[in-house]
Backbone:
């Protein structure tokens, strides 16, 4: 793997490549080309080749890419050739849905703990987990190996909760709260906000 810093826009495309390749494999394909992969995703063959070349040489002229090999390589690059434990913060309706979703474990992630600050939710069972009191995080997270959190709390408390998560060793946050978080640069944050995506799409609707 090359040592220079890879642009984030390229890294952000790798999960899309991986998803398409896994679907091809499920369909019975064993090889593919940059043209075919690009066609499935709306990218040019040149873009596919350029992105992948940032991490090494994975295909051969005239024969294309071995799908199982390329899947394995991208999983290694994205560090999902292992299982990542996730802290789910917020046991409301969205938290319930995420806790009961079965699509994480076959993609390298699993919910490991659910916390909330609502006395009516603490102690209740969701998706096989007993909701823990968020006040106890300082005793539960250090040493657990959990580095990633999903934040499904109200926007009004998202910043404070995120800051508390940093104090116990969380390094990456997937934020479902519709508010930007102000955190140190070494903390990676991704945002899931359907309204933002809908407002983006309506620009293109005639």
Residues:
């Amino acid at each position: 793997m090359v040592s220079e810093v890879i642009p984030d826009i390229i890294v952000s495309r790798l999960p899309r490549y991986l998803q398409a390749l896994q679907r091809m494999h499920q369909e019975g394909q064993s090889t593919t080309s940059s043209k075919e992969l690009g066609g499935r995703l709306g990218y040019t063959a040149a873009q596919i080749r350029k992105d992948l070349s940032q991490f090494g040489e994975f295909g051969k002229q005239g024969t294309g890419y071995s799908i199982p090999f390329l899947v394995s390589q991208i999983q290694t690059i994205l560090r999902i050739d292992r299982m990542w434990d996730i802290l789910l913060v917020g046991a409301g309706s969205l938290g319930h849905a995420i806790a009961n979703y079965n699509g994480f474990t076959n993609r390298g992630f699993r919910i490991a703990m659910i916390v909330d600050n609502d006395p009516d939710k603490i102690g209740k069972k969701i998706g096989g987990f007993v909701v823990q009191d968020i006040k106890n995080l300082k005793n539960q997270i250090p040493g657990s190996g959990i580095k990633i959190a999903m934040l499904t709390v109200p926007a009004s408390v998202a910043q404070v909760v995120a800051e508390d998560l940093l104090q116990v060793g969380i390094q990456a946050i997937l934020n479902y709260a519709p508010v930007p978080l102000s955190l140190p640069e070494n903390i990676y944050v991704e945002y899931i906000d359907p309204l933002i995506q809908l407002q983006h799409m309506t620009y293109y609707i005639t």
